Amino acid sequence: MLAKCRFSYICGLPFDSCVIVSFAGVTIIQRNVRSWCTLRNWSWFKLYGRVKPLIQGSKKDEEFEALEQKCKELEEKFSREEKLRKDTETELAKLRAEKQEVFLQLEQERDNNAESEERAAKLLAQKSDFEKQLVGLAEQLNEQEDRYDTLLKAKRKAESDNDVLKKNIGELENMIRKQESEKQAKDHQIRSLQVGFV
């Protein structure tokens, strides 16, 4: 639509005006292309184009520090959960030993006389309580194991993310060193050319 309007406008002008308008347009286009070619081959513009993505490296450092902090927190939480799990296992082993002891006492009392029946009933009640506690502790142990697995997976994922970030940082540092060496070489070349001209 815009081209059609321009064409209609230009067709309505005298021939000399059309030539002047066309020449002015060609001049503007040539000037823009010449400016772009000069800018494209300018060393500082090339350097800017390469360094610009590296400016975001500080954000990567912040993310890396946050991941390290999260990893430390997960390790501390994992240590606490591991200690709690060991304590629970110790208590469970103790309760099992007590249960075994109650069973042995019960058998011994059964072999005794009839007067020990009342005590045997008490021991049975104690056994039932111990079994309830044992079931509760077994459930706690299962929960702790599930939590342990979850924390272990989270720790592995955090370590994997940490390795990826370290690799990215290494690549960025290598790129910066390479660009620094290229810049020094170009500076040396420029100085050599300046000395040659003098």
TrEMBL record:
GO terms for cellular component: cytoplasm; myosin filament; myosin II complex. The keyword Coiled coil applies. One of its GO terms (molecular function) is actin filament binding. One of its GO terms (biological process) is sarcomere organization. Residues 57-189 form a coiled coil. The keyword Transmembrane helix applies. Signal peptide: none annotated. The chain crosses the membrane at residues 7-29. Keywords: Coiled coil, Membrane, Transmembrane, Transmembrane helix. It comes from the Eukaryota. This is Myosin tail domain-containing protein. It comes from Parascaris equorum (Equine roundworm).
